[in-house]
Amino acid sequence: MSSKYKNDSVVHPEITTSAAERRRVVAATTIGTAIEWYDYFLYASVAGLVFHKLMFGPLEGGLAAVISFATVGISFLFRPLGAFLAGHYGDKLGRRLVLMVTLFTMGGATALIGLLPTYDSIGVAAPILLVLLRILQGVSAGGEWGGAVLLAVEHAPAKKRGLYGAGPQIGVPAGLLLSSGVLAVMNAIAPGEAFLEWGWRVPFLFSIVLVGIGYYIRRGVEESPVFEELVEITEHEAKHPLKVLFREHTPLVFIAALVFAGNGTVGYMTTGGYIQNYATNTEGLAMDRGGVLIAVTLSAASWMVFTLFAGFISDYLGRRNTYILGFILQAIGVFALFPLVNTGDMMKLTIALLGLTVGLGLTYGQQSAMYAELFPASIRASGVSITYAIGSLLGGAFAPMIAAALVRATGSTTAVTGYLVSATIVGLIAAMILRDRTRIPLGRDHEADQASGHFLFSKV
Questions:
Q1: 208-259: pLDDT as tens digits
Q2: Using CA atoms, how far apart are residues 260 and 255, in angstroms rounded to an integer?
Q3: Which of 20, 29, 172, 348 could be a cystine partner for 148, CB 3.0 to 4.6 Å?
Q4: Of 370, 21, 82, nearest in space to 228 by CA
Q5: CA nearest 385: which of 49, 86, 176?
Q6: Is the separation of the CB atoms in 142 and 79 below 8 Å?
């Protein structure tokens, strides 16, 4: 950990909220983020299980799966748009407002997917409408994360920033757990053809209930104290935060994005629906759909645990050291993944997915705190949101489609393993380039420190 910031006695005048309010903020951002990502991951899972059959009727064989996974990736192309909008208005109007807008946008698009007719009913209009709704999900996801993590981290005391910031991070595997769990329940209620006919729709329509819960939870949360300080003194407000961000911090944005890309590429093997499709495909392993969904649900629970642990331990080891450990463990999990999955044994598949979540959690839980500590207060929402969106685009966006294309081209998963290991190495190198800034003051009075010293080779 950098000695410049590790002293527990550092005073942070921006933290003025009570411990009870900080707990409410963490609960609201965690639960709200889980609901948002339930919607997002639900699509990815159903793309691998259902959409390649029902929405892309004339496409045969592996090509249908590739195109279906491409629709998963298309949403990532629009995450930067959501990040630009959310970052700009998050720096101008506040983090809380952005979170309410993204919640309703995501939930509305998800519910409409549940009502969408199939290709057999309306022809080519079905995949077109599906893609449009997926784009709305992408815009929403691009704006959600930055607002949620800044509310959590900017309310947190300096020495617990990683732990508080792990709340919204937990929301992501919680969304996977919830979506996989609901799909597993519906697979049991409506097995076989019933699942294809109507069972898959119920989890999408259930989003209406979850949006109502998310609104109720988020409406009472106070705005970030850092943002409130910024609006009190107008000279600290960046009139054009996006322009300032790219003029002064472009290298930082892309190197920090590569850190997340190293995690996202591997994580989207399950969150993007690839493993679910690969394991259950009748032309391949033909494993039981219900069993695979249960295995993914268990892995999501494990991912939550290690994500929380990463946030907690990063407050002591530092963000950078936690990343280095995490990427090493992630590489080990990647090497073991397909040799175990390819056995076709459900227990070994479960072990593979559980093992993978150790490294995934340890390269994810500290992400909120690390990103918040990288950018000056006046442009922080823009910096965090856009860096995350670019990292998602470089990493998770088309990872399932690339994996499907590699298997289709080579006939084996060896190339996929090489692809995932390469992404992990890139993430590791990017994390090692960045200087550890754990516990750097986040308030407006420290913008000079916040704007410099980002890289290990730069002057302090």
A1: 998 888 888 777 777 666 667 666 655 545 567 888 899 999 999 999 999 9
A2: 9
A3: 29
A4: 21
A5: 86
A6: yes
- In the numeric block, which tokens belong to residue 157? 């005391």
Q: Which domains does the chain have, with CATH numbers?
A: 19-450 (1.20.1250.20)
pLDDT in tens, 47-90: 877 887 788 766 555 566 667 667 777 877 887 888 888 777 77
Output the six-digit token pair for 243: 């322009």
Answer whether 323's CB lies under 8 Å from 363's CB: yes
Name residue, tokens 């530092």.
318
What predicted TM-score, i.e. pTM, was given to this entire model?
A: 0.82
- Which tokens sit at 149? 């993590």
